[in-house]
Specification:
Elements lengths: L25 E7 L4 H16 L6 H18 L15 E7 L3 E8 L20 H8 L2 E6 L7 E8 L11
Antiparallel strand pairs: 1-2, 2-3, 3-5, 4-5
Length: about 170
């Protein structure tokens, strides 16, 4: 156990979300270009997907987290050359996966560097607070390096969903 408890936020260790990939009931993914419009595309894709899954009521929180994860991937996860190279696999990919009581958003990028929450007291600062927002709005988050043909890492955030048998309007 490391003793750097000074950081406010530690991602849920390195590792995968605590879920069985075989039990996923819905999954959708989209490739995102290495341009800042990708954040808008990711939001549109998330809106469409959650509407299809009848989860539009979770859109605001999920979309905020998706925006932050995609922004981080574009800002910190791409080599400088990625913005110019065309004709290759888009380097950033968004995955949305749903289980009965969980939703996971995962963003893949080509960098092997771990995501870092920048220590900042200035909450008006544009950069550095993305992971604090991810931590605040999701139930857990973490990251893991990819192996094999896929290089880079995936940063994921998990949302707990109300049980379906609780009724759609059980507020």
């Amino acid at each position: 156990m490391g003793t750097n408890g000074s950081t406010m936020l530690e991602p849920l260790r390195q590792g995968l979300p605590p879920l069985d990939p075989a039990a996923v009931s819905d999954a959708a993914s989209c490739a995102l270009p290495a341009r800042y419009e990708a954040v808008r595309e990711a939001r549109r894709f998330t809106r469409r997907t959650l509407d299809q899954w009848d989860m539009g009521d979770r859109f605001d929180d999920v979309c905020l987290v998706v925006s932050e994860l995609v922004t981080n991937a574009l800002r910190h996860g791409l080599p400088a050359s990625a913005h110019r190279v065309t004709g290759q696999e888009p380097p950033v990919r968004l995955h949305l996966m749903r289980w009965t009581e969980r939703l996971v958003c995962a963003v893949r990028d080509p960098s092997h560097d771990s995501p870092v929450a920048r220590e900042t007291d200035d909450f008006s600062a544009e950069s550095g607070r993305g992971l604090f927002l991810v931590d605040s709005f999701s139930d857990s988050w973490g990251w893991h390096p990819l192996a094999g043909a896929l290089s880079g890492k995936v940063v994921w955030a998990l949302f707990r969903l109300p049980r379906a048998d609780a009724g759609p309007h059980a507020e």
